[in-house]
Design a protein that fits this description.
Layout lengths: L3 H26 L4 H21 L2 E4 L2 E3 L2 H12 L1 H18 L4 H22 L6 H18 L5 H52 L3 E6 L4 E4 L1 H6 L19 H17 L3 E8 L5 E12 L5 E10 L1 H23 L3 E5 L5 E4 L1 H6 L13 H10 L10 H11 L4 E6 L5 E8 L5 E7 L1 H22 L9 H18 L3 E8 L2 H8 L1 H18 L6 E6 L2 E7 L3 H18 L13 E8 L8 H17 L5 E3 L17
Parallel strand pairs: 16-17
Antiparallel strand pairs: 1-2, 3-4, 3-7, 5-6, 6-7, 8-9, 8-12, 10-11, 11-12, 13-15, 13-16, 14-15
Amino acid sequence: MGSPWSELLANLAVVAMFVSVWVHTHVWVDRKAALTRATAFGLLMGSGAVILMMTPMQLQEGVFVDLRGTMIALAGFFGGPVACAIAGLMAVAYRFHEGGVGVVAGSAGIGIATLIGIAGHLALKGRYPERVDVLILAAAAAAGSLLALFALPRAIMQVVVPQVGLPTSLLIFVSIMLSGLALYQERRRIEALHSRRIYKAIVEALPDCLNVKDLDGRFIAANPATARLMHAADAKALIGKTDFDFYPQETATKFREDELVILGVGAPSTIEQRVQHAGGAYGWLSTLKAPLTDRAGTIIGLITHNRDITARRELENELAESRVRLTDALTHMADGLVMFDAEDRLTLCNDQYREMFPDTADVRVPGADHRAILRLSVERGEEIVQGDELEPWIDDIIRSHHVACNRQIRLADGRWLDIRTRPTHDGGSLSVFSDITAGKQAEAELVAANEKLNLLAHRDGLTELMTRRAFDETLAREFARSQRNDTPLSLLLVDVDWFKRFNDRYGHPAGDDCLRAVSDCLRATMRRPADSAARYGGEEFAMILPETDAKGAFVIAEKLRAAVRGLELVHEASEKKIVTVSTGVASLDANGPALDMAGLIRRADEALYGAKAAGRDRVHGWPRHDLSQAPLLRGRRK
C-alpha cells in the first residue's frame, strides 16, 4: 500500500473519472428510455463503487476505508431508485465476495448510502437539484458513513470510531460535494444548451425581425425574418454589416439617428419608421429598440425588434379616408341620422338630427340614454304625450328600434318627420329622419283640392245638389244594397212646370233663383241621412229614397209638391199663376216583379210623364196599364 495521501488521491481520482465518464457520455444515453438511462447510470456508479473498494485507503494499521458511499449516494440522488439499487447491489455483492470481519459494517454502510440516495431523489419531487440539495446530500451521506461504523464488533468499534470516524465522514462529504456539484453543473450546462436551442428555434421561426447590433451599428446577430426584410441572402449575410449596406442613404441615416438617441437615453423605445427599400418601394415598420448591457450594466449594443406594419398602415389610411368620407356624407346629407347600441345608448348622430329636435339637441349626444332623451322631449314640449301614456309610448318607440319599420311622427310645432329604422348586427339600431313637413302640407293641399274637385264633380254649382254623375253612382250603390239586403227602394223624378216659359218671361237670373228655391225644398223634404237629391238635368230633379216603399215615397212627393206651392213664386205664364212641380214615383219592392236599375228609372220617367199629361202640379206613380206607346222623349216634356 502507498501513503494515505496517495491512496486518498487515487480514490478521488476514481470518483472524478467515473463522474467524468458520465458527463461525456450521458448525452448519448439521454436519448434512450428512462429505464435504460437509470440502468446505465447505476451500472457506471456501481462499477465505480467496486473499483473504490478494490483501492481502499489505509488510515491506520489494519483499518481501511473507501468512498463507495459517494458513488452509491450519487447514483440514487441523480439517477433515482433503479440506478441506486443497481449500484448498491453491485457494491454489496463485491463486499460479501471479499468477506472479512467488517463485512456486516460495510454492507450496512452500503445500505445506508442507498437509502440516503433514494430518499434525496424522492425529496426533490421531480425537480432538478440545486446546490443546497447537494450540500444536504453530502451531509446526510457523511452522517450515514459514521453510523455504519457502529455495525463493527464492539471491541473494534471502540478503537476505530474515535480514530477514523470523523476523517471518513469528512472524505465522504468532500467527495460528494465535488462530484455532486460537477453533475449539477453539467445538468445546468445541458439545460442552458437546450434553452439556447429553443430560443434560437423561436427567434428563427419568428415572423417579426429580431437582431442585435454593436455600438457602431454593425449586425452581430439576426434572424431570417430580418434578412428577408432587408432583402439579404440569409441572416449570415447581415453579420458585420450596417443598414447603409442595404437601405438608401437617407433611410439608413434616419435609422442610425434613432439608434443613437436610444443609446444616449439608455431606455427602450417603440417608434414607427417609414422605410424605403433599395428597389424604391416604401413600407412602414413598428420598431422596438432596447439597449443591450453586460453584467456590469454597461451598454454594449442594441437589440431591435421590427414588425412590418405596411399593410396595417394602408388599412389605417383607408379607414381614415373612409371616416372622412363618412363624416362629409353625414355633414352634407339632408336627412338626420342616429345610431343606438344594444343598451339603447346613442352612439352616433349628425348635426341634421340634432337640428330636427332643437329643444333637446343638448342631450342628443353620444352616450345619452334613449329613454331619457324621450322623457326630456316630452317634458320640454317637443313631443305631445299625455302623462299616463308616457311610459307605454316610450316602450313602443324602444321596441320599434329593434325591428325594421317605417313610421311618421308629428311634433308639437307642427313639423312632420318620417323615420326609417333598421336593426344593426350588434343588437342596436340605425334610424334616418326626414323632414316631410313640406310634403305633408302639399299632401293636405292636394287632398283639399281633390275634395274640391270631387265636390265640383259631384255637386251642382247652381243648386249644390248632386250632379247627374253623382246621382248615377249613388243610385247604383243603393240599388245593389237594396237587392243584397232585400229592402225597398224608391225613386222620385221631379220637373218644374212650364219652366221654359218662366225663363222667357222673367229671364235666366230669375230662373236660376227659382231652381235654387226648388232645390231647397228638396233638401227640406228629405228626412233620412241616406236620402239624397240630385239635379237630374235642366229643370229636372231626382230623389233617391233607400228603404222607402211606394206609400212612403208618395208621402214625401206630396210634401215636396206642397212645399214648392208654399213658396208662392209668381209664374204668370202658368195656368196655376205660381211655380209648381210634377213628380213621378217608382219603387223597387221585394214582393214585386224583378226589376233592374234601368227599369226603375224608366218607370219613374213614365210616372212623371203621366203627371204632366194629367195637368201638372201633381204626383203620379207608375201606371199599371200599358204605357208602352206613350212618348218617352224628354225633349217633348214642357
